[in-house]
Write a structure and sequence with these properties.
heterodimer, A: alpha/beta, Rossmann fold, 4 helices, 26% helix, globular, B: alpha/beta, 2 domains, 11 helices
Chain lengths: 177, 309
């Protein structure tokens, strides 16, 4: 199987800083905003963004949660592989907050659709935005678009975009497989 | 593994250790769900479940119904007292009639041991045993072990004594299977008349003395005396039973360690345990009830994921 590198560690790093700055433009000190990483792989990106906001832009008290969408997915019993749940960890209410969903890859939009339902268990957000590192723009099944994107990628259905994180995979990089 | 090895939950006996681990991991997630401001997930929106209770039940029936509703399943419930069973309909006919209304799963409680097994062989639906006579009550045993795991960290290596009416108890048998499968050590304690003759063939030991049993254990699971299943007198009087096999605060305080007290309910206050024990810090009785919903959600979710579209 061929691996084509889409983003190197340096490029990922530049992109993370750009995304963090774009968030600051819209959310100022984050006093009325919360970040929610979508389980499982969106959590790495969410933690990185939070780390940059805190350490390089001195924005403290950012609320970060992780949302698992397994029980809200629309392919229960339609998938050949059983669905595996992850931990949801949201220790705050999202009532009247600006919520930023964070995920590594936006593909069909079905995960985000499920996340939009799932987050309602924690209140009614005043608005919801979406931040992704990779936007596979021609693969959407639903009318869902990101508000912040690292890179748009045109890939055919059979190809897979893999985002690697140094804390999990040993390096920051994005591959087309 | 992220799939159960079985298509029905008929008893703990038919499960593997990995099945129990998977049910617990899934229940952990559902426990978080049922503590959210909005406690519902849409997973089972295209699944219909029938709860068929041929025996009385309060908490098991409520717990199953709540679990099913939290998962967004469509639920129909019926009790034998109000049904055509009274008119002489057979079990298979009753259930097949319900299934022709396109029901995917049946949760059943029945007075006859093996009723759930029998049903699983004869009807085309996923079956969950909610208690079959004095045989098994698998979801109760799962929630008991889950509560021990929650309170003490793990089940393996723990010493558990099951006290009381072992003879008529489906909770006891399922608990013995579940606890042993997870590596716990099990003793039973009760009047000799209420201990089955061949219980030791299951690998448990019998301790007739309650104080010794409590001093040995980490967890005491106090069972209810099932008067409704007793055809003859198994002990002289309730008062004598309470004196010999009832746990009160004085007895609990006189032990040299703090043990966990469990009870599957309903409690006969003042018989198996006194009120101050039932309501004490050492009691996890209400945690058991809360965990019951999470465990039943996990069982139903995992079984439903195996139902073909």
């Amino acid at each position: 199987m061929s691996h084509k590198i889409l983003l190197t560690s340096k490029e990922v790093n530049i992109m993370l800083h750009r995304l963090a700055c774009q968030l600051i433009e819209n959310h100022n000190d984050f006093s009325n905003s919360v970040l929610i990483g979508i389980q499982p792989r969106g959590t790495f990106l969410a933690k990185r963004i939070k780390h940059i906001l805190e350490n390089e832009y001195q924005i403290n008290n950012i609320q970060l949660g992780f949302l698992d969408i397994t029980f809200f997915r629309d392919d229960f019993r339609r998938n050949t592989n059983p669905l595996e749940a992850n931990k949801t960890q949201i220790d705050f209410l999202v009532e009247n907050k600006k919520v930023v969903f964070i995920d590594d890859v936006l593909f069909t939009g079905r995960s985000i659709n499920a996340a939009l339902t799932a987050v309602q268990s924690f209140g009614r957000p005043s608005e919801v935005e979406l931040l992704v590192l990779i936007d596979r723009r021609f693969s959407r099944h639903l009318p869902i678009q990101p508000d912040y994107r690292g890179r748009q990628v045109d890939a055919i259905q059979d190809e897979k975009v893999k985002v690697c994180w140094s804390e999990k995979d040993g390096e920051d990089s994005v591959y087309l497989i | 593994m992220s799939e159960l090895s079985v298509n029905h939950l008929l008893g703990i006996k038919y499960l593997k250790k990995q099945d129990i681990d998977l049910i617990f991991e899934t229940a952990d997630h559902f426990k978080e769900v049922i503590n959210r401001p909005i406690k519902k997930v849409p997973s089972l929106r295209d699944i219909t479940i029938a709860n068929i209770f041929f025996e009385n039940s309060t908490r098991t029936k409520l717990s199953f119904e709540l679990a099913q509703k939290r998962l967004s399943a469509d639920v129909i419930s019926f009790s034998a007292a109000q049904s055509s069973v009274k008119k002489g309909e057979t079990l298979i006919d009753t259930v097949n009639n319900i299934l022709s209304m396109k029901v995917d799963m049946v949760v059943m409680r029945h007075a006859n041991p093996g009723a759930a097994y029998f049903l699983s062989k004869n009807v085309n639906a996923s079956i969950v045993n909610a208690g079959d006579g004095a045989h098994e009550h698998p979801t109760q045993a799962l929630l008991d072990s889950f509560s021990i795991r929650e309170k003490l960290g793990e089940v393996a290596g723990k010493k558990v004594v099951i006290v009381g009416d072992i003879l008529h108890s489906r909770v006891a048998l399922s608990n013995i299977y579940a606890l042993q499968m997870q590596g716990a050590e099990v003793k039973v304690c009760g009047p000799k008349t209420l201990i089955p003759k061949y219980i030791e063939s299951l690998g448990v030991t019998v301790e007739p003395n309650l104080r010794k049993a409590l001093e040995w254990c980490d967890v005491a699971n106090m069972l209810r005396v099932q008067n409704e299943r007793m055809d003859v007198n198994y002990f002289p009087s309730t008062r004598e039973y309470a004196q010999q096999y009832g746990v009160d605060k004085a007895l609990l305080n006189s032990l040299n360690k703090e043990i966990v007290i469990m009870h599957p309910g309903p409690i006969n206050r003042g018989v198996e345990i006194t009120s101050d024990v039932a309501d004490s810090q050492q009691s996890v009785i209400l945690d058991q009830v809360e965990n019951g919903v999470a465990i039943r959600m996990a069982v139903i979710y995992l079984l439903a994921s195996k139902i073909k579209q």
